[in-house]
Request: fold
Amino acid sequence: MNAIIVVPAYRPDPALLVLVKQLTSSGDYRRVVIIDDGSGSEFTTLFTESQSFPGVTLLRHAVNLGKGAALKTGFNHVLCEYPDAKGVVTADADGQHAPGDIHRIAERLGQAPDTVVLGARRFADNSKIPWRSRFGNQLTIGAMRLLVGQKLSDTQTGLRGLPLSFLPHLMRIASTGYEFELDMLIACRHQDFHVVEEPVAAIYLDGNRSSHFNPLLDSARIYFVLLRFGFISLLTAAIDNLVFLLTFPVVANIAAAQITGRIAAVLFNYLAARRAVFLSRESHTVTLPRYLLLVAASGIVSYGLIEFLVSHTHLTVFAAKLSAEGTLFIANFAIQRDFVFRKRKQEPAAVTSTLDT
Reply:
């Protein structure tokens, strides 16, 4: 099976050895790449033992850099050493992923090498799922559906099949902690990689105590990724409205004030949205015309709404503008997400999720 297994590990327990033994004994995988993310000298023996299994490569960080950084170290190794691989399957080191599930994710990746495969845990009996895993996953699912347009049942799974062609895009993402896995899903959307889910078991050993996920700190990092969508959009709206508010008393013309405010907002929003929100690396010759088309269309619709509200209600011009822009906020965001900054590439072979089968 032409997939490389990548396992980031920080201060692991012996479950890592069990996992590596099971994976290497099956003979299905060319290599298992383990990344010691600065675990310290007291874990040297465990990592040395894991390296003794056939087909295992051990990479080390001198200090703890975060799960995202460890994954990127593994991706870089695979790209350099195994350029003919179908891709990688990432798995956690704490025993949460059964070897059989890892095998099925690798199989699906082999069937559709341009598709990202997520191992979606079944959460049928929530009473058996540790609260920090249940809480974080459910909140992130809702936020992702609203802000990113991803209809996924498990956004925080560490079991993922990633095409080799996707890895260079992931290595350019700035995040280095648990938020990297959320950025990965955003990159899937905007690099136009199809995402499917494969049902896997939800395994939590000893209440998931071996996990190094901090419910407060790491959740804050994850939601910062999501909040930046709204923050940049709100800041853009603030610039637009402030310039409009300052300009209208001077020119006494809705259209002129609207155009002035829109130009000021565009100068800020285009670059911020392109790089910090939608993680786009498409050429400006592709994204800028789309963006300007959206700005022009949105401006015309907004102008019409403002004129209508001023003429048919008791709203002031500025209140009418806030109402109009608020109405268009979600539509503008969705169009930027799905049209302006989304990379287009050849559709992969049709692959359907087995979650509902």
Summary: The longest helix spans residues 217-251. The chain is about 55% helix and 10% strand. The radius of gyration is 24 Å. The longest strand covers residues 3-9.
